[in-house]
Every structure is written in structure tokens, then in C-alpha cells.
Amino acid sequence: MSATAASLAKLLAWRPGGYLRASGALFGWLAVRTLAQTVLFVLVARTLGADGYGSLIAVMAIAGIFSFAGMGATAVLVREGSRQPERVPELTGDLLRLWLVSTPVLSVLAVLTNLLVLGDILPLSAILAIVIAEVVCHTAVDAIGRIYQCQDDVARMGLISGGLIIARLVAFAVLMPLLDWTPASWAWGYCISSALYLACLALFESRGLRWPAPSTRPLRHIAGAGLPFAFSYAAHKVQAEINKPMLARITSTADAGALSAAQRFTDLLLLPVLAMLETLAPRSYRAAHPMATTFTLGLIPLAIAGAGGAALAASAHWVPWIVGSSFDGAVSAVLMLAALPAVQVFRWLLGTVMTALDLHRYFFVVHGAGSFTSVLLIAALAPVFGLTGTIVAAYGTEVVLIAIQGWILVRNRAPRIRKAYV
What we know:
By secondary structure, this protein is mainly alpha-helical. It is built from 17 helices and no strands. α3 runs antiparallel to α4 (88-118).
């Protein structure tokens, strides 16, 4: 039997039971998280209106770009820990050390960048509150969840991630009748609820989670091993989030609010897809043939993203009814964004294959080009076409990323020997 016939027979015999069960567990918690996040988004959007919500989300977008404290070591933890479970305490110790060193630096950079790009769109204290919530609290919570992901306990990972959003929603619901809500007051509620949740999570997990082993590896080696992943995360955040602060600066905060609202509805479509992709990653990293494994398992999230886009477009007219009439501009944005999730899933699958084949050193080229393309296209199109130009820029950037990643994989199609993280 030829190699092609053998691969086809294996594909036809594949049964995704374990993969779908694990994805289903994560999907359940992500569903709870997304429901809480959607309710929170609707409350904040209706309270602040498109203009106030746009100013808030612009600051949050820039803070999110710098929320990769320890992110490189987190990706190394998931990849190497899924291959060698006995090394999880050692890898966790490396992650903790890098997080402690990088967090203060990234927090300062996030505040300064917000002031430079957006000026006094929000008070300095509110910007600082958002930075603490995103750069400090969010990254710490995510790191704890990733420890479970590398051990295939994605349900616990989903629970930890969802808990953060639920804590923010509860805080908002409790305080809503007591305060006059402005972008600044919401920023502080966001910060305090995030910090309280992180403190409770750290206390609870300290009883059951394996303690990190003391990190003895030189810090430059830890940072160097994770640098491609950290760069990839930051560049992806630039690609995904820079459109909102740029819109707020070029056109209006109302346009930024409308774009963010449209992306929130698109996120609902990505919920089951994200669960499958997170579950897929450790399996691809362990597989003898990562390309075949990734795209075999990836057929289902690709199909969901494609079919869901049509449903998203059909329901676009409900957006102003849900979040308020000031978000009328979000209807056309949802229609234009409906096909983007399918394109993103394909690009994410290519990135998973690159990581599994230890081609992550190319992330500097891939995501650097993506960030540059995104900023360049938005700067060229937004002043002329406004919100529409920004969405066209998103599609253009995805096409560039897919082309570059495809070229790299073709160029490195020969069998490779994985290099261990040492």
C-alpha cells in the first residue's frame, strides 16, 4: 500500500471521540465564560454608549498588547510539558521567574504607550487600573490554567479562565446600583475584581497544584526559549487589537466601540472553535506526523467556523436591539466580519503545525509581518473608508499571514527531528 493510500485509510478510520470529549469539557466552561462575558459586555455597552465604551476598549486594547508577561515560557510549558509530564514543576518554576521579572516592565510600557497613543482619553488612574487587570492579573490566571492544559486537563483550564470573567460580572452587578458608571469607574471595578479573583485562585491552587521547582536555568535561556512565542503573542495582539485605538484616534471612539461590539459577537462563533483548538494543540505537539494530525482534527473547527459565519450574518440586525441604538454601525461590521473566523482558524492551524515541527523561530517573520501589515493597512484605509477600511485590513492581514506560514511549511517540508527544550 502506498504512503498516500495508507494516510487516506488512516483518515477514514479516524474517530474523534477522545478529542471531542475533551473539547466538550472545555467548551462547557468556555460557554459559561462567554455567557458571562456577553452579559458583562451588554451591561457596560448600554451603560456607557458607543462613545464611552469605545474610549474604554481602546485603552484595554493597548493594555492587552502588553499582556504577555511570561507568555513565552507558558507556551514552552504547554509544548514541553505535554511531551514530558515529569518536567512540569521545572517548567512552571521557569515560568514563574520570568513572569515576576517581566510584569513590572510590561506594565510601565503599557501605561506609557496608552498615554502616547491616546493621550488623556481616560484619567491616568483608570489607565493604570486597566493595565493591572490585563498585564498582571490576566497573565497570572492564564498561566495557572496552562499548567493544567499541558496535562490534558482542559476542563480545569476552562474553569480557571471562566472564573475571572464571572468575578468581573459579579462585581459589576453588585456595584452597579451604587455607583455612577463612567469609563473610569468601570476600569477600577475591572481591576479590583480581577485582583481579588487572582488572590483567591492562588490561595486555592496552592493546596493542590504541584509547586514549581526552583528555577536554576539562566534567565536569558528561559527568555530566549520563549521569545518566539512571546513575540508571536504580542504581534498577534497588535494585529487583533490595534484597530480600535487607531480608529479612536483617526475617526472616533464611537467607531471603535462599534468595531469592538461586532468583534464581541464574532467571538461567540469562535467559542466552540477555540475549545477544539486548545484541545488540539497538545495532541499535535505529541504526534509523529503533526501536519496530518492537526488538519485531521482541524476539519471540525473549520467546518463550524464556516457554517457559523452564515448564522452570524443572519443575526446581525439584532445588535442595536441588544446593546443600544448608538451601536447601529456595528450591524454592517458584523456582516463584513462573518467570514473572518474561518480564515483565522485556518491560519491558527498552520501556526500549530509550525510549533509542533519546532519551526517557531519563524514566528518573528510571520507575526512581525502580520503586525506591520495590519498597522500599514489600517493607516492607509481607515482615514478614507473608516470602519469598513479597518475590517478590509483585517482580511488582508490574515491573507498575508497564511501565505507566509504556508511558504515556510513548504520550504521545511522535509522530516524534522524535534529539539528538546534544555
